[in-house]
Design a protein that fits this description.
Layout: E1 13-18, E2 24-29, E3 33-40, E4 45-52, H1 53-62, H2 64-74
Antiparallel strand pairs: 1-2, 3-4
Helix pairs in contact: 1-2
């Protein structure tokens, strides 16, 4: 599976490892992803979402139902 947050759309970034002598070698910065289960009381079911730490904070702030609606509108989740 790809390393992308299904709520915020955060993906991996490219950057450099910089040594003491300032030599640069390409590297990847991976997002902080978790596989979490959330209960949706409106539908009376559990769903599994691959979500980043920023996505967890967003879910805590606006709620799982609103976060899934927003992700569906942005095209991050196919059907919820």
């Amino acid at each position: 599976m790809s390393k992308i947050c299904q709520i915020t759309g955060i993906t991996s970034l490219a950057g450099n490892n910089v040594s003491h002598s300032k030599r640069r070698v390409k590297r990847r910065f991976q997002p902080n992803l978790f596989v979490k289960k959330f209960y949706i009381p409106e539908q009376d079911r559990w769903i599994t979402v691959k979500v980043s730490c920023a996505g967890l904070r967003l879910i805590n702030k606006i709620g799982i139902h609103a976060a899934l609606k927003r992700a569906t509108a942005e095209g991050l989740i196919a059907n919820y």
